[in-house]
Write a structure and sequence with these properties.
Shape of chain A: elongated
Number of strands of chain B: 0
Structural class of chain B: mainly alpha
Oligomer: heterodimer
Number of helices of chain B: 8
Number of domains of chain B: 2
Helix content of chain B: 55-70%
Strand content of chain A: under 5%
Low-confidence stretches of chain B: 110-134
Order of helices and strands of chain B: HHHHHHHH
Helix content of chain A: over 70%
Number of helices of chain A: 3
Largest interface: A-B, 64 and 86 residues
Distance between the termini of chain B: 56 Å
Largest sheet of chain B: none
Chain lengths: 98, 187
């Protein structure tokens, strides 16, 4: 496995683990999600660059646009949580707990 | 040059470990900036300067600035950094995971399992001046031309993404609308 491939894969898995094993703040989990999107952007860009295929360069740009949508939706939920519960602690989101 | 690319990749791994170990969001955003910077360096080494500029402008200059403003919602008197034991334990675990995997894949030295950057990417930008890319005899770089295709052949996707962005604006408006509508019930 090339170092670049290994870096992209391990960065994706690490960000996913950071999102899975979240701790206190909702914003930290959203930052891990942004890390996933960044790794996907780098991976798609390197794919277009290494294959010398210019036409594939649109895919990372579109992915960035959709990731901006996702980040803004996540941040809106963060603001809603902070306004309802007073903080963005994930332990406050326990309405569905049995 | 390959060593520079390797140091950018290592910078990316260090950044992702510092985000994934879930410190206080102030420090997590710093790790994300490091990750984006190292990733941009990696892209530039492969000759994609336009995509790196777009990443810096839109991602760091747009999205992360908004995240930094929202970090005010995560304010606490003693923010946890990487010196605190829970964060340090997670960072150490991820570090061991990544470098254990690296030794597993690359532990044999320059053997059959290792393909360096110069072997995989036979690109003149790696070896010399990026302005020596005379493959296409074109004024603009390949990735910039590819993004320009979004406006010509990819016109439908452009309209779709603009529509999705407008929709997201209304989603955000409705989620944060108070007075018992949307996701807020009380305020």
């Amino acid at each position: 496995m090339t170092p670049t491939n290994f870096t992209i894969f391990s960065a994706f898995i690490l960000s996913l683990m950071g999102l899975t094993f979240h701790r206190t703040h909702l914003l930290s989990a959203l930052l891990c999600l942004e890390g996933i999107m960044l790794v996907l952007f780098i991976g798609l860009s390197l794919w277009a660059l290494q294959l010398n295929a210019s036409g594939y360069s649109t895919v990372p740009i579109l992915m960035l646009a959709f990731s901006a949508c996702e980040a803004s939706a996540g941040l809106a939920l963060l603001v809603a949580t902070a306004r309802t519960h007073g903080s963005d602690h994930l332990q406050n989101l326990n309405l569905l707990q049995c | 040059m390959a060593y520079l690319m390797l140091s950018f990749l290592v910078g990316m791994i260090v950044g992702v470990i510092s985000v994934a170990s879930n410190p206080s969001p102030y420090f997590g955003a710093l790790g994300l900036v490091l990750m984006a910077g190292a990733g941009c360096g990696c892209l530039i080494g492969h000759g994609g300067a336009f995509l790196a500029v777009v990443l810096f402008l839109i991602y760091l200059g747009g999205m992360l600035v908004v995240f930094a403003y929202c970090a005010a919602l995560a304010a606490e008197p003693y923010p946890e950094a990487w010196g605190d034991v829970e964060v340090f334990a997670a960072a150490l675990f991820y570090f061991l995971l990544v470098f254990g995997g690296a030794f597993w894949f690359f532990g044999g030295g320059y053997g059959a399992g290792w393909a360096s950057v110069e072997e995989v990417v036979a690109f003149p930008a790696i070896f010399g001046d990026p302005f020596d890319e005379v493959i296409n005899f074109s004024v603009i770089s390949g990735d910039a031309a590819g993004v320009g295709m979004l406006y010509s052949l990819g016109g439908g996707l452009l309209v779709l993404s603009a529509w999705v962005l407008l929709l997201t604006l209304f989603v955000v408006l409705e989620v944060t609308r108070g007075l018992a509508r949307g996701a807020l019930r009380a305020v």
